[in-house]
């Protein structure tokens, strides 16, 4: 076991190598399982989460999974390093089904800094959803540890290095959040994932872990995406990162694991992972390949509605963290529901913008017929505003409900606009138009450099009449003052009138005034 | 109308400004594009609103723009500062020209 662990960390060094790993992952998975069992004792040292039960491994915790998995697998790069980043994600995720370890490795490869010493390759991957479980020092109880906050779990699971990385990743994630939706995985990846790259793999990995990583809204998007990607077979991993590879390996997994949860670690893994990940990965498989959405990766839930999904994937770039856990559980459900709501995927994401990649990306809001947002994401958002803020449970529930209703209404209207456009594909412009006109919300970075026509704010008739009256009264006043002093009182009164009825009165007064003026002069 | 000076592209300008505000010297192209889009959108929106206000009072003037940013104190102060400096420069140039004229007449 020990031997296995050390070797894996070294090979993990180059992130691109991790990309290669995904393909071999499916195969090694069975191997890993075997290995994991023997290695658990040894692996604990590195990743602290030797998955005793590869199959049940609900936590995609890529990083957490100790190297035991890695050594057996050809993907040395992948799980072992957190920095391995995204590419590793896909792999770990797949393997994750067998073991969690790989997720960690998939974590932001960008953060290659993550101490390779971690030996626990999985650590590097995005421990997004899984880390919580893995982070626990005792692999046997993946679930209990997972419940712990991701950040904490990361530290533990990764064996300490992750903790440092996490902190690094977090700040990085924030910065990246803008650019790369995936960056959110930062939590997952202590190494400060190069958000963009990592986004893809991260998201996939995130899903399983969907845990707290989605702290920042932007990051959340990533996470959701990352996980989705991973699970979804990196369909959209189109993101600049090389993570793409994880997608392919994921696919085989996805297809097989569509029903299962492997991609979606138990809900507790990653509340942040954006529930849609489970849905997404299903859809991602089919869609991802097609869409190669640069943006966040939100894999459309329905495989059937590939077209829609394609759009969604693009939009995902910002998927909110809402997808977290509830989605995972609903993963199987989501598939069914995904078909119902391909449009619901669009989630408007103000933060992450992947201009280059998804012009038509519609913010995807993952929703699998159940809860879209998890309380964890609400917590993360609140923490961004004020770390010491506390919310009542009822308040959280209400916020989640409001968010879900918002997403529902947006997607519904967006679909009707798309239908009005005589198209059967929901695109970013539908959502953008709706938000701009009805919510007065502008999301830069999604319009694809289309000409923006300016529309004056809609004014009512009554307001126009009042304005006309005021104008006339002003003119009358000026005329009155200029001509003579006698009409001052009348002018004053005219100025005060602002009602439509006064319009007539003002006109009459004007007439009288002029008449009197004429008489006066004569 | 032909633009006489090509100069740095708008993206380069935005990039330099971002650096001035604390960003990396070489930010991601997507970030630059996004920031540029935000800036263009903001300026466009401001111009449209100023037009709406200006049309009520006649024609567009500087006052309309100042009115629109009245809520943003740093921006407003910076704008008034720049405008006053512009006035000062104008007067300085005027005085300079007058001096030359005087010298010419004296001679």
UniProtKB/TrEMBL annotation, chain A:
GO terms for molecular function: DNA binding; protein heterodimerization activity; TBP-class protein binding. Residues 30-50, 104-120, 148-164, 172-188, 200-220, 235-252, 280-319 have a biased composition (Low complexity). Residues 1-29, 51-77, 137-147 have a biased composition (Pro residues). It is found in: Nucleus. Residues 374-441 form the Transcription initiation factor TFIID subunit domain. The keyword Cytoplasm does not apply. Residues 92-103, 320-343, 349-360 have a biased composition (Polar residues). InterPro entries: Histone-fold, TAF12, TFIID_TAF12_dom. One of its GO terms (cellular component) is SAGA complex. Belongs to the TAF12 family. This is Transcription initiation factor TFIID subunit 12. It comes from Gossypium hirsutum.
From TrEMBL, chain B:
InterPro entries: Histone-fold, TFIID_TAF13. It comes from Gossypium hirsutum (Upland cotton). This is Transcription initiation factor TFIID subunit 13. It holds the Pfam family TFIID-18kDa. It comes from the Eukaryota. Belongs to the TAF13 family. It is found in: Nucleus. Keywords: Nucleus, Transcription, Transcription regulation. The lineage of its organism: Eukaryota, Viridiplantae, Streptophyta, Embryophyta, Tracheophyta. Its main location: nucleus. Coiled coil: none annotated.
